[in-house]
Structure formats: structure tokens, C-alpha cells
Amino acid sequence: MASRLRERLAVVEEALAGHVVSRAGFVTETASHLMSAGGKRFRPLLVLLAAETGDRADSDEVVTAACVVELTHLASLYHDDVMDEAELRRGADAAHSRWGNHVAILTGDWLFSRSSELTARLGPEAVRIQAETFTRLVEGQILETVTPGPGEDPLAHYLEVVAGKTGSLIATSARYGARFGGATPEVEEALTAYGEIVGSAFQLSDDILDIASDSGESGKTPGTDLREGVPTLPVLMARAANDPADARLIELLDGDLTDDDRHAEVLDLLRKHPALDEARAYVVTRAQEAKAQLAVVPPGPVRDALEAFADIVAVRST
């Protein structure tokens, strides 16, 4: 199974390289920038894996669907980096750092357009699914910029953001794989739910690594989100504890964390806080919920691989 998926992913990678080529050389350069920098290819891999639940896993439509979700993801990263004013992405200069905000935003738009062109090849139902996914993704991005209102639970607000920004597209990845791989409607529905849960858990495990990792396992310097004031699962859980013993922690979180000494202190306090284990337990529970969705998938190597896929998410956070 692993060998087969590697071979199929190589086909997707080659197709992606072709899909970011424009008639204009400069557009090709900017659109290829993040893809050439690498990435986990989490979404196309899930398309390929979900397709194995059907009888058409080798179809060209599966490869096209895998390209659709990865191009959509890449496009969102261009916009994300402008919004976050991030200097680096995947170890390379963020596009806006190299070419400016206008070029970065328009490159993201161009990639969204390319993904839409490919989606049209998959038929009107795929277009509808992609449109609904894109709506949720952008809603999540907008909600991320909004401070929760009075009486609104900040943690619930954040989980809604994660479900929109990350869970929605990963759910569609699993759905497309099942659909275009020839799976039954029952399996497609189950894998969509599975992808939604795994997708959110994947982002939340990154939140934990941002605090717990000493070696940049999350692909970023540990504490990056913390320094930038980005809310994450462990921080929100620590705040929700409302423990008087956390007075210093809350003071630091509410202050300027661009100062190296303050940043190091708050990172140390969070690593010792019960909220970190609480966050880990939450992600493990979500991974188990995702695996429970797989009851309709026949036992065998495909189901085993999907379960392992969910387990990897949980292991990343422990």
C-alpha cells in the first residue's frame, strides 16, 4: 500500500508542476514558489488513500481531484501569509516578502482559479462541493480576524475557525477520493466526516507542537504562534482554566511577547501547565472519533492505513 501510494503521489506531483505553469513566465515563478518549497502533501495523499476504498483508485479523476485540493491549499497559504505578515513559509521567503502583497494576493487568486478550472473537469457536483468548501474556508479565515464577542466562548470560536480553515478542505479531500475512486455513497459520507475530524485535529496538533517542540517539528520555530499572539489550543485551554495560580502566565500572555526573555518564560510556563496535556488528550480523542467513522470501510489494508493516518495526527501531539 505504501509503495502504491508513493507511486501515485509522484504522478500527482508531476501533474501539479504542470498546473502551475502560466503563459507568463513571472506568474509561473510566483505560483511555483511555495510548491517548490515542499510541504507535507497531506491533502492529496488523503485523496489517494480514500480512493483506495473504491474500485477506480487509478482513475485520472482521482489525480485531478488531488491536484484540486492541493492547489486550493497552496492558494490559501499565499493569502494567509499576507494576513499574518509571515516572513517565511516552508523555510523559504513568503511570497509577499519577495514580491509584495499585491503579487502574493493575485498569485493566490490565480491558483484558486486554476483549481476551479480543474474542478470543472470533474463535473457540476464537484464544482458544488468545491464552492461550498471554499465558502467555509474563507469564512474560517474571516472569523480568525474577529475577536469573540461578550459571552462568546473563545475556545468554541477558535475551534470553528479551525474547522473552516483546515477541516473543510481535508474533509473534501477524503470525499473526493472516495467519490472519484468509486466508493459507495455510504463510504463517501463516512470518509467526509472522518476527514473533517482528522483535518481539525491535524491543525490542533500543530498548536501543541508550537508549544511543546524543542526542535521545530511543526515546521516553525517553537513558540512562533505564541510570539505573534495567535490563539492556539493550549493557550486557550490555559486561559479557560481561570486558575489564580496562573496570574503570571496570563500577565505574560496579555503582554509583549516579542521580548525574548518574556517569550522564553511564558513558553516554559505553558510547557509545565496542565493545559498542554489537556490539549494532547483532546487531539487523541478526536483521532479516535475519526477512526470510529471507518466502521463502514471493510477491514483490510485500506482501513488499516486510514486508521494509521488518524493515529499519526495524535502521535504528532504527544
TrEMBL record:
Q: Which Pfam families match?
A: polyprenyl_synt (PF00348)
Membrane-traversing stretches: none
Keywords, alphabetical = Magnesium, Metal-binding, Transferase
Q: Which domain of life is it from?
A: Bacteria
Gene3D superfamilies, per the entry: Farnesyl Diphosphate Synthase (1.10.600.10)
* Record keyword Repressor present: no
**Which cofactor names does the annotation list?**
Mg(2+)
Where does the UniProt annotation place the signal sequence? none
Q: What CDD domains does the annotation carry? A: Trans_IPPS_HT
User: Into which family does the record put it?
Assistant: Belongs to the FPP/GGPP synthase family.
Protein's name in the database: Polyprenyl synthetase family protein
